[in-house]
Write a structure and sequence with these properties.
338 residues; alpha+beta; two-stranded antiparallel sheet; 11 strands; 13% strand
Length: 338
């Protein structure tokens, strides 16, 4: 037993040292954190949270998370399933009513959360990850319902349940569904059912135009002052945009696996691979809001944001990379090992 603990801690140290070395060489801006079960975490901060004023990133700096947010959305929906207010197999058409009439009547909540709904996406990431050009001004994207004009007028592109296609808009629809079913504003729902349930006291949907001093500004490039305030929704929604810290993501994984956010039955269902499986991700399947494989993994990328967090169910090790630069984490991947 002692040997296995020592081996895990040694592996954690090697991983942390390798990540730190690559971070220094690549000019990484952000935070690295590695946790082992019951051990003292390794964490380190690099670069600047605010370049204009020379404010350094700290280990407790809050970063935008981009698509890591999708797991929070999926869990907020799952909490409503736990409450008996809907099921994963509930059709979304009755909930949407007259809104988004081009969404097929057969589309279910499950299909929104596992990227098999077949609805057209407002941001087609299959197009060489080309940045989205929003059809409406980003300051008008502050609530779940305000995403409706962005989602409207987009026909089905495939039959529901037949094709896996990564879909941001589907998670925006899921946020609207969750808000209408619960009668609670989406941001408040996630705050109560995910952040508070997991003890994530440093996590919130911050507005881009009024970031507090402990939040990192997202920069488009490795150098310069151009930031993302005009290029992303002013307040995140179902598909991305929540702010958190590396420490809060450790709390998140531990609370999730301890069934403090949703019931064990639903947690297992969310971490079970779906069919059809995604294409193009070697050794990665997908559950409901989570990438699966050797680890449970979440990752996000947008202008001014690049993030990665994973939990190893075999060892209990948690690794998180948060950056406030568009391409920040990618030089650190694949994860350097010993």
């Amino acid at each position: 037993m002692l040997n296995s603990v020592a081996a895990r801690l040694a592996a954690m140290r090697v991983l942390a040292e390798n990540l730190s070395t690559v971070a220094e060489i690549s000019g990484f801006s952000g935070v690295i954190r590695v946790d082992d079960v019951g051990g003292v975490p390794f964490e380190a901060a690099f670069g600047l949270a605010n370049r204009a004023y020379g404010v350094a990133n700290r280990t407790d700096t809050r970063f935008g998370t981009a698509s890591i947010t999708k797991a929070f959305t999926a869990l907020a929906v799952a909490a409503l399933v736990d409450d008996g207010l809907l099921s994963f197999d509930s059709p979304v058409r009755p909930i949407l009513g007259a809104d988004l009439p081009l969404i097929d009547e057969a589309v279910t909540v499950r299909q929104l959360l596992n990227h098999t709904s077949g609805i057209s996406d407002y941001w087609d990431e299959s197009n060489n990850l080309a940045p989205v050009a929003y059809d409406i001004p980003t300051p008008l994207l502050a609530t779940a319902e305000q995403f409706l004009p962005l989602l409207a007028g987009r026909p089905q592109v495939s039959e529901p349940g037949q094709v896996f296609s990564y879909n941001n808009g589907a998670f925006c629809v899921a946020a609207i569904v969750a808000e209408r079913v619960s009668g609670t504003p989406f941001h408040d729902l996630v705050a109560a059912r995910v952040f508070a349930a997991a003890g994530m006291t440093r996590s919130a949907y911050l507005r881009q135009d009024e970031l507090p001093g402990d939040a990192a500004i997202g920069y488009l490039h490795r150098e310069g002052l151009q930031n993302n305030v005009l290029l992303v929704a002013v307040r995140g929604g179902g598909d991305g945009g929540a702010y958190t810290t590396a420490g809060d993501l450790t709390k998140f994984w531990r609370a999730l696996l301890a069934d403090q956010i949703v019931s064990g039955e639903l947690r297992k269902e969310m971490l079970t691979p779906t069919n059809p499986a995604p294409r193009g991700w070697v050794d990665r399947s997908y559950g409901l809001g989570f990438w699966l494989g050797g680890e449970y993994m979440l990752q996000g990328g947008d202008r001014g944001v690049s993030t990665w967090t994973q939990y190893n169910p075999d060892t209990g090790q948690i690794m998180t990379l948060l950056s406030n630069v568009s391409e920040g984490i990618w030089p650190l991947l694949p994860i350097p090992s010993g």
